[in-house]
Design brief:
Layout: H1 2-6, H2 11-35, H3 40-51, H4 57-62, H5 66-92, H6 97-119, H7 133-147, H8 170-173, H9 189-211, H10 220-230, E1 234-240, E2 243-249, E3 252-259, E4 262-270, E5 274-284, E6 291-302, H11 310-325, E7 328-329, E8 336-338, E9 343-350, H12 355-371, H13 411-416, H14 420-438, H15 459-466
Antiparallel strand pairs: 1-2, 3-4, 4-5, 5-6, 6-9, 7-9, 8-9
Helix pairs in contact: 2-3, 2-5, 5-6, 5-9, 6-7, 6-9, 10-12, 11-12, 11-14, 11-15
């Protein structure tokens, strides 16, 4: 670790990275103020002033050594995530839809500028099988010019701009996908928003991979878990010529932050209408460099179908994997589903003695969690990445629909209903999940989960309900 800290000779990069992280923290604190219609203009103007510091970062980046460049790209990644969260907070805030469209137009301008500037640092020769990166960058700029025009606000269907268009697939549209961009152009502001986010993350991941200064010097336990996470095969669903097609891809490293004695690595795994972010956080002993505590967390974002509560199922898989694997959650890391943001969040805690076993099974855990997001998709068959385990996912266990017009109906209440159809369906889901996890841990004693004295509601939706 000392080798990493000794390689920096750039005071400017260290100061800029510190300033960027301060901005990221400030964005997190004021996002509720930005979301509110009454205080939007005041706090967004302040945020714009903060964002001006980013204008000089690419030039500073080009003058740095390998360490300085990695430091800056990681800090920019933190600002991007906080800005992304600020926009999502605004979109989820109560208020008139037409006002949200205007705000989204305003907030997308600096976001798209960031995308344009950072994509300029990507060499098209390093991105085989895709349209020229810079030509795509220009095309997105032309599309953005039309969508950001104030005349859009006068369109009778202006609120449609807040929704992802029917056949838009961000995984195919983003730079580096290998797909033809002309077939996957953004049509709404929501399309543009998610595309800009993924393209910035791609550019930062590209730059991180080029440097590779950190990972070779990380403690072996951290490197072992990082390599396991990066090797995970995850599903992605693309739409090509009106037909759905599954592809398999690994997560991409988007940032690595060293704030000794803590190391944090973040990974991005785009899905069709969902996305997943994973984070490895290692707390080290300053004297020995050995791990004091290792955490692996996940955030899954995506649309929650009325009749296919896949997001709570993903949270349930995160809990079942921990139960079977014998590791714990951090005090606030138990799997939860936040319905207002359509986000599943969890954090596993692993001690040093468990690292090898945990790393060995981590790809399978993440495969189960992310593949469960596709349960209920229109595809008749769900391929299982890797094929090493006999995992089973089916679309047959339909669920009673959740009435989203009834504001008093929460998913927790939904799972607590004394409903025979729901109980039967959930019981089958639980058996399916247990069978999948026993492929990883055949020794796992899960008899209590299938106890027959629980009444008509299986424990499956008892603990899923607690996570809602």
């Amino acid at each position: 670790m000392s080798k990493i800290l000794e390689t920096s000779h750039s005071i400017d990069a260290l100061k800029a990275a510190s300033d960027l992280r301060t901005i990221a923290e400030r964005f997190e604190k004021v996002k509720a103020r930005v979301a509110s219609h009454e205080t939007f203009d005041k706090y967004w103007d302040k945020a714009l002033k903060d964002l001006q510091i980013l204008n000089g970062i690419p030039q500073l980046y080009s003058k740095q050594n390998s360490f300085g460049r990695s430091l800056l790209s990681s800090a920019v990644g933190e600002v991007v995530e906080r800005l992304d969260g600020m926009i999502k907070e605004m979109l989820g805030h109560p208020g008139k839809e037409a006002q949200k469209v205007r705000k989204l137009q305003v907030m997308l301008r600096p976001y798209l500028h960031m995308m344009h500037v950072w994509l300029k640092l990507v060499d098209s020769k390093d991105v085989p099988g895709h349209d020229d990166v810079q030509k795509v960058n220009e095309q997105i700029g032309k599309i953005a010019k039309k969508l950001l025009n104030s005349a859009l606000l006068q369109h009778p269907k202006v609120t449609d701009q807040l929704n992802v268009s029917a056949h838009f697939n961000v995984s195919a549209a983003q730079v580096g996908s290998g797909a033809n961009f002309s077939r996957h152009k953004p049509k709404t502001l929501a399309d543009l928003f998610t595309l800009a986010h993924q393209n910035i993350l791609f550019a930062l991941a590209y730059l991180q991979k080029k440097e590779n200064v950190f990972t070779e010097h990380l403690p072996i336990a951290v490197r072992t878990v990082a390599e396991a996470l990066a090797s995970t095969e995850m599903l992605n669903l693309r739409v090509e010529k009106g037909k759905q097609r599954f592809v398999i891809h690994p997560p991409s490293l988007i940032s690595l932050t060293v704030d000794f004695p803590t190391v944090t690595m973040r990974y991005n795994a785009p899905q069709r209408n969902h996305s997943a972010l994973f984070e490895i956080t290692a707390s080290l002993n300053p004297q020995t460099g050995r791990i004091k505590e290792l955490k692996v967390g996940g955030k899954l974002f995506g649309y929650q179908a009325h009749d296919m509560p896949r997001m709570p199922w993903a949270a349930a898989y995160a809990e079942l994997c921990a139960r079977a694997g014998g590791f714990d959650f951090s005090p606030e890391g138990a799997p939860t589903y936040d319905r207002s943001r359509d986000m599943v969040e969890f954090t596993w805690t692993v001690d040093e003695s468990q690292v090898k076993k945990f790393a060995r099974h981590l790809p399978d855990y993440l495969t189960l969690i992310t593949t469960s997001l596709y349960t209920g998709s229109r595809s008749r068959r769900i391929p299982i990445p890797g094929g090493k385990k006999k995992f089973l996912f089916t679309n047959k266990w339909g669920m009673p629909k959740l009435d989203h017009n009834d504001n008093s109906t929460t998913l927790g209440e939904y799972y607590s209903r004394d409903d025979v159809a729901l109980a039967t369906s959930s019981k089958l889901r639980l058996k399916e999940a247990i069978a999948n996890i026993k492929c990883i841990h055949p020794e796992w004693d899960c008899s209590s989960l299938l106890s027959t004295d629980l009444g008509p509601i299986a424990e499956w939706h008892r603990f899923v309900g607690r996570r809602c």
